[in-house]
Amino acid sequence: MMDALAQSFPWLQYVVLLVVGAALVGVERAWPRRPGQPETRARWVVNVGLYALGLLLLALVVEPLQTAAIRIGSLPGWGGLGAAPLPDALKVALGVLLVDGLQYGLHRLCHAVPLLWQLHQVHHSDEAFDVSTSVRHHPLEVLALTGLNLMLCAALGVPLLSLLIYALLLAPHSLFCHSNVAIPAGVDRALRWFSVTPDMHRVHHSVRMDEGHRNFGMVFPWWDQLFRSYCAQPQDGSERMRLGLAQEQTLAAGDVPRRSGLWTSLWQPFTRPPR
Fold it and tell me: Is the pLDDT reported for residue 73 higher than 60?
Protein backbone atom coordinates (compact mmCIF):
# COMPACT_ATOMS: atom_id res chain seq x y z
CA MET A 1 0.00 0.00 0.00
CA MET A 2 2.82 2.39 0.88
CA ASP A 3 4.51 1.67 -2.46
CA ALA A 4 1.31 2.46 -4.36
CA LEU A 5 0.85 5.67 -2.35
CA ALA A 6 4.44 6.76 -3.00
CA GLN A 7 4.10 6.12 -6.74
CA SER A 8 0.82 7.99 -7.12
CA PHE A 9 1.80 10.81 -4.74
CA PRO A 10 3.43 13.17 -7.28
CA TRP A 11 0.26 13.28 -9.37
CA LEU A 12 -1.85 13.83 -6.25
CA GLN A 13 0.46 16.66 -5.23
CA TYR A 14 0.13 18.38 -8.62
CA VAL A 15 -3.66 18.07 -8.55
CA VAL A 16 -3.74 19.67 -5.10
CA LEU A 17 -1.43 22.45 -6.29
CA LEU A 18 -3.60 23.21 -9.31
CA VAL A 19 -6.87 23.20 -7.36
CA VAL A 20 -5.59 25.22 -4.40
CA GLY A 21 -3.63 27.58 -6.64
CA ALA A 22 -6.61 28.33 -8.87
CA ALA A 23 -8.84 28.93 -5.85
CA LEU A 24 -6.33 31.30 -4.22
CA VAL A 25 -5.85 33.28 -7.46
CA GLY A 26 -9.58 33.90 -7.50
CA VAL A 27 -9.68 34.88 -3.84
CA GLU A 28 -6.70 37.23 -4.01
CA ARG A 29 -8.19 39.01 -7.00
CA ALA A 30 -11.53 39.41 -5.24
CA TRP A 31 -10.09 40.40 -1.81
CA PRO A 32 -6.49 41.57 -2.28
CA ARG A 33 -4.39 42.48 0.75
CA ARG A 34 -2.24 44.84 -1.31
CA PRO A 35 -4.32 46.30 -4.17
CA GLY A 36 -2.42 47.64 -7.14
CA GLN A 37 0.76 45.58 -6.81
CA PRO A 38 2.42 44.37 -10.04
CA GLU A 39 0.57 41.34 -11.38
CA THR A 40 1.90 41.26 -14.92
CA ARG A 41 1.84 38.27 -17.21
CA ALA A 42 5.64 38.52 -17.51
CA ARG A 43 6.02 37.92 -13.75
CA TRP A 44 3.94 34.79 -13.94
CA VAL A 45 5.89 33.51 -16.94
CA VAL A 46 9.16 33.92 -15.01
CA ASN A 47 7.85 32.42 -11.77
CA VAL A 48 6.10 29.44 -13.34
CA GLY A 49 9.01 28.94 -15.75
CA LEU A 50 11.46 28.68 -12.84
CA TYR A 51 9.14 26.16 -11.18
CA ALA A 52 8.96 24.02 -14.33
CA LEU A 53 12.74 24.01 -14.73
CA GLY A 54 13.14 23.07 -11.06
CA LEU A 55 10.77 20.13 -11.49
CA LEU A 56 12.66 18.98 -14.56
CA LEU A 57 15.99 19.11 -12.74
CA LEU A 58 14.55 17.19 -9.79
CA ALA A 59 13.13 14.53 -12.10
CA LEU A 60 16.47 14.06 -13.80
CA VAL A 61 18.74 14.14 -10.74
CA VAL A 62 16.88 13.53 -7.48
CA GLU A 63 13.81 11.40 -8.17
CA PRO A 64 15.74 8.21 -9.05
CA LEU A 65 17.49 8.35 -5.66
CA GLN A 66 14.77 9.73 -3.41
CA THR A 67 12.69 6.64 -2.65
CA ALA A 68 15.76 4.46 -2.11
CA ALA A 69 17.36 6.93 0.29
CA ILE A 70 14.23 7.38 2.39
CA ARG A 71 13.61 3.64 2.55
CA ILE A 72 17.14 3.14 3.80
CA GLY A 73 16.48 5.70 6.52
CA SER A 74 13.27 3.89 7.45
CA LEU A 75 14.85 0.45 7.88
CA PRO A 76 14.44 -0.89 11.46
CA GLY A 77 18.17 -1.43 11.86
CA TRP A 78 19.11 2.02 10.65
CA GLY A 79 18.27 3.87 13.86
CA GLY A 80 16.77 7.29 14.29
CA LEU A 81 13.08 8.03 14.51
CA GLY A 82 12.00 5.05 12.41
CA ALA A 83 13.54 2.64 14.93
CA ALA A 84 12.34 4.47 18.06
CA PRO A 85 10.17 2.39 20.47
CA LEU A 86 7.10 4.55 19.86
CA PRO A 87 3.64 3.95 18.39
CA ASP A 88 3.64 4.29 14.62
CA ALA A 89 1.15 7.17 14.67
CA LEU A 90 3.34 9.13 17.09
CA LYS A 91 6.46 8.48 14.99
CA VAL A 92 4.68 9.76 11.89
CA ALA A 93 3.48 12.90 13.71
CA LEU A 94 6.94 13.57 15.14
CA GLY A 95 8.40 12.98 11.69
CA VAL A 96 6.19 15.69 10.21
CA LEU A 97 7.34 18.15 12.89
CA LEU A 98 10.96 17.12 12.40
CA VAL A 99 10.82 17.71 8.65
CA ASP A 100 9.29 21.15 9.20
CA GLY A 101 12.05 21.95 11.68
CA LEU A 102 14.65 20.89 9.12
CA GLN A 103 12.99 23.12 6.53
CA TYR A 104 13.17 26.04 8.95
CA GLY A 105 16.87 25.40 9.54
CA LEU A 106 17.66 25.08 5.84
CA HIS A 107 15.75 28.30 5.16
CA ARG A 108 17.87 30.14 7.71
CA LEU A 109 21.00 28.69 6.12
CA CYS A 110 19.90 30.15 2.78
CA HIS A 111 20.11 33.60 4.36
CA ALA A 112 23.33 32.95 6.30
CA VAL A 113 25.53 31.15 3.74
CA PRO A 114 26.59 33.44 0.84
CA LEU A 115 26.56 30.67 -1.78
CA LEU A 116 23.02 29.61 -0.84
CA TRP A 117 21.88 33.23 -0.66
CA GLN A 118 23.12 33.76 -4.22
CA LEU A 119 20.52 31.21 -5.28
CA HIS A 120 17.81 32.09 -2.77
CA GLN A 121 17.83 35.78 -3.65
CA VAL A 122 15.98 34.91 -6.87
CA HIS A 123 12.96 34.10 -4.71
CA HIS A 124 13.27 37.41 -2.86
CA SER A 125 13.73 39.50 -5.98
CA ASP A 126 10.00 39.44 -6.74
CA GLU A 127 8.64 42.90 -5.97
CA ALA A 128 5.09 41.60 -5.81
CA PHE A 129 3.72 38.98 -3.45
CA ASP A 130 1.12 36.56 -4.70
CA VAL A 131 0.51 32.88 -5.37
CA SER A 132 3.08 32.79 -8.16
CA THR A 133 5.83 34.00 -5.79
CA SER A 134 5.63 30.66 -3.96
CA VAL A 135 7.10 28.79 -6.94
CA ARG A 136 9.76 31.40 -7.80
CA HIS A 137 12.93 29.49 -6.89
CA HIS A 138 16.12 29.04 -8.86
CA PRO A 139 16.36 25.41 -10.09
CA LEU A 140 19.80 25.01 -8.51
CA GLU A 141 18.39 26.12 -5.14
CA VAL A 142 15.61 23.55 -5.49
CA LEU A 143 18.17 20.87 -6.26
CA ALA A 144 20.53 21.84 -3.41
CA LEU A 145 17.84 22.12 -0.73
CA THR A 146 16.02 18.98 -1.81
CA GLY A 147 19.27 17.05 -1.73
CA LEU A 148 20.23 18.37 1.72
CA ASN A 149 16.75 17.71 3.09
CA LEU A 150 16.73 14.21 1.64
CA MET A 151 20.06 13.31 3.22
CA LEU A 152 19.05 14.71 6.61
CA CYS A 153 15.71 12.91 6.61
CA ALA A 154 17.36 9.62 5.65
CA ALA A 155 20.04 10.02 8.32
CA LEU A 156 17.42 10.77 10.99
CA GLY A 157 15.22 7.85 9.97
CA VAL A 158 12.14 9.92 9.18
CA PRO A 159 9.26 7.60 8.18
CA LEU A 160 8.28 7.71 4.52
CA LEU A 161 4.66 8.42 5.47
CA SER A 162 5.81 11.53 7.38
CA LEU A 163 7.51 12.83 4.26
CA LEU A 164 4.46 12.22 2.11
CA ILE A 165 2.14 13.92 4.60
CA TYR A 166 4.48 16.88 4.99
CA ALA A 167 4.89 17.32 1.24
CA LEU A 168 1.11 17.30 0.88
CA LEU A 169 0.91 19.99 3.57
CA LEU A 170 3.77 22.12 2.29
CA ALA A 171 2.72 22.46 -1.34
CA PRO A 172 -0.71 24.10 -0.79
CA HIS A 173 0.46 25.93 2.32
CA SER A 174 3.29 27.58 0.40
CA LEU A 175 0.72 28.87 -2.08
CA PHE A 176 -1.44 30.12 0.79
CA CYS A 177 1.27 31.92 2.77
CA HIS A 178 2.48 33.73 -0.36
CA SER A 179 -1.00 34.73 -1.48
CA ASN A 180 -2.16 38.33 -1.70
CA VAL A 181 -5.32 37.55 0.28
CA ALA A 182 -6.89 39.95 2.77
CA ILE A 183 -7.46 38.04 6.01
CA PRO A 184 -9.22 39.83 8.91
CA ALA A 185 -6.78 40.76 11.69
CA GLY A 186 -8.55 38.61 14.27
CA VAL A 187 -8.52 35.56 12.01
CA ASP A 188 -4.85 36.14 11.20
CA ARG A 189 -3.94 36.26 14.91
CA ALA A 190 -5.80 33.01 15.53
CA LEU A 191 -4.19 31.26 12.57
CA ARG A 192 -0.70 32.24 13.74
CA TRP A 193 -1.04 29.90 16.71
CA PHE A 194 -0.61 26.92 14.41
CA SER A 195 0.15 28.14 10.87
CA VAL A 196 2.30 30.64 8.99
CA THR A 197 -0.04 33.23 7.46
CA PRO A 198 0.42 35.51 4.43
CA ASP A 199 0.82 38.61 6.62
CA MET A 200 3.42 36.79 8.71
CA HIS A 201 5.41 35.51 5.74
CA ARG A 202 5.19 38.78 3.80
CA VAL A 203 7.45 40.32 6.46
CA HIS A 204 10.12 37.87 5.30
CA HIS A 205 9.96 39.39 1.80
CA SER A 206 10.53 42.95 3.02
CA VAL A 207 13.17 45.01 1.24
CA ARG A 208 14.46 45.82 4.73
CA MET A 209 16.74 42.90 5.53
CA ASP A 210 16.32 43.33 9.28
CA GLU A 211 12.78 42.16 8.51
CA GLY A 212 13.77 39.86 5.66
CA HIS A 213 15.90 37.87 8.11
CA ARG A 214 12.78 37.05 10.14
CA ASN A 215 9.86 34.62 9.89
CA PHE A 216 11.63 31.67 8.29
CA GLY A 217 8.85 29.20 9.18
CA MET A 218 7.53 27.07 6.35
CA VAL A 219 4.27 25.53 7.67
CA PHE A 220 4.28 25.80 11.46
CA PRO A 221 5.10 29.13 13.14
CA TRP A 222 6.57 27.77 16.37
CA TRP A 223 10.20 27.58 15.19
CA ASP A 224 10.41 31.34 14.76
CA GLN A 225 9.09 31.82 18.28
CA LEU A 226 11.44 29.20 19.69
CA PHE A 227 14.57 30.54 17.99
CA ARG A 228 13.62 34.23 18.32
CA SER A 229 13.34 34.99 14.63
CA TYR A 230 9.69 36.09 14.78
CA CYS A 231 8.52 39.52 13.64
CA ALA A 232 4.81 40.20 14.08
CA GLN A 233 4.44 43.15 11.69
CA PRO A 234 6.64 45.10 9.24
CA GLN A 235 7.61 48.60 10.30
CA ASP A 236 5.79 50.22 7.38
CA GLY A 237 2.67 48.05 7.62
CA SER A 238 1.58 45.21 5.36
CA GLU A 239 0.03 47.48 2.73
CA ARG A 240 2.81 50.09 2.47
CA MET A 241 5.90 47.93 2.93
CA ARG A 242 8.29 47.54 0.01
CA LEU A 243 9.08 44.06 -1.26
CA GLY A 244 12.07 42.65 -3.10
CA LEU A 245 15.81 43.25 -2.95
CA ALA A 246 17.31 46.63 -2.13
CA GLN A 247 20.13 46.29 -4.66
CA GLU A 248 17.65 45.47 -7.42
CA GLN A 249 15.58 48.55 -6.65
CA THR A 250 18.73 50.70 -6.49
CA LEU A 251 19.62 49.58 -10.00
CA ALA A 252 16.09 50.36 -11.19
CA ALA A 253 16.33 53.86 -9.71
CA GLY A 254 19.66 54.54 -11.41
CA ASP A 255 20.67 55.17 -14.98
CA VAL A 256 20.97 51.49 -15.90
CA PRO A 257 17.60 49.92 -16.75
CA ARG A 258 16.94 46.69 -14.91
CA ARG A 259 16.23 43.68 -17.08
CA SER A 260 13.64 41.08 -16.26
CA GLY A 261 12.76 37.73 -17.71
CA LEU A 262 13.36 34.04 -17.22
CA TRP A 263 16.95 34.06 -18.50
CA THR A 264 17.81 37.07 -16.33
CA SER A 265 16.46 35.28 -13.25
CA LEU A 266 18.40 32.12 -14.08
CA TRP A 267 21.62 34.12 -14.49
CA GLN A 268 21.00 36.40 -11.48
CA PRO A 269 22.94 34.30 -8.90
CA PHE A 270 26.06 34.62 -11.03
CA THR A 271 25.83 38.38 -11.58
CA ARG A 272 24.80 39.77 -8.18
CA PRO A 273 27.42 39.89 -5.40
CA PRO A 274 26.39 38.53 -2.00
CA ARG A 275 24.98 41.00 0.52
Answer: no
In a domain, 16, yes or no: no
> What's the pTM value of the predicted model, to 2 decimals?
0.89
Cα 109 from chain centroid (whole Å): 13
pLDDT level of residue 37 (50, 70, 90 thresholds): confident
Q: What is the pLDDT of residue 259?
A: 60
Neighbours of 202 (CB within 10 A): 24
- Count the domains in the chain: 1
Report if residue 230 sits inside a domain.
Answer: yes
Q: Is 181 left (phi over 0), alpha (psi -120 to 50) or beta?
A: beta
Which of 149, 119, 111 lies closest to 136, judged by CA? Answer: 119
**Would you say 111 and 118 are in contact if contact means Cβ atoms under 8 Å apart?**
no
Which domain covers residue 84, as residue numbers? 60-270
Instruction: Give the tens place of pLDDT for each residue, 171-229.
Output: 999 999 999 999 999 999 999 999 999 999 999 999 999 999 999 999 999 999 999 99
Residue 20 lies in a domain: no
Q: Is residue 164 in a domain? A: yes
Q: Could you give the CA distance from residue 271 to residue 78 in angstroms, rounded to a whole number?
A: 43
